[in-house]
Write a structure and sequence with these properties.
This protein is of the alpha+beta class. It has 8 helices and 8 strands; from the N terminus they run αβββββββααααβααα.
Amino acid sequence: MNPITTTVLIIFLVLFILLSFVTVQQGTIAVITIFGKYRRIMEPGLNFKIPFIERVYRRISIQNRSVELEFQAITVDQANVYFKAMLLYGVIDQKEETIKNVAFKFIDDKNLMQALVRTIEGSIRGYVANKKQAEVLSSRREIVEYVKEQIDQVLESWGYHLLDLQLNDITFDEAIIRSMAQVVASSNLKAAAENEGQALLITKTKAAEAEGNAIKIAAEAERLAAQLRGQGVALFREEVAKGMSQAAKEMQQANLDTSVILFSMWTEAIKNFAEYGKGNVIFLDGSSDGMQRTMKEMMAMNNLMDPSKMPNAKK
């Protein structure tokens, strides 16, 4: 064998060996075909293939992928709703059948993405079309659950599954936003007015209760004061009566006329008039006839008060 042939054989052998080994990156699966027909898959790491016969058709990423969506939907009451969403999806698993679906269902990732986005948009539009604009904002979670339920089977046939769907922003036309803001503002004003009315009612109720309690306390205090004043007057009269009775007994024991007591009380009364009158004018008859008339009246009063001197008294 000549040196040229040997050299060619060596080069061919080295090239054959080099082309026989394939490195598959972590997170990817390599799909191998023979003459355009599916043969097998290669997992991450160093793999062997038949040079010039087996070919790496496609490398499938098994890592999770995300995409942002922006689209429009119309509610049942003809309101435009604008969505901004984040879609997270990935390959179901690393099984051979799953990888075959991922590799051969779509020509490339661009077509897959287009089908995936349009499917999700259509599902959300179908859901929103049966809702009113006032219900959309409160149905964020229901929309996500509805979309997952609707497209899970479709994505599974493609070899993918939906990991998460986040509706980051839901907006309406400017006119609708203004009207919604006015509704919220009017609701807040109504709630504030109701709260203010309740607070005023509570304040007035408490004030009325306090005033009523104060009136009750004042009335009770006045009643007690009147009762005490009456008891004081009664006790004063009782003590006066006791004193007069005692004085009368002592006068009788001394064989003196009890009218002297009345005369003494009369003169004491005139003295008090003069001391504590504070400038008031009091007219008294200071003549002898007036004095005699006054004494007769006092003696007559004394006879009325003494049961022993009454006409019908038993002797």
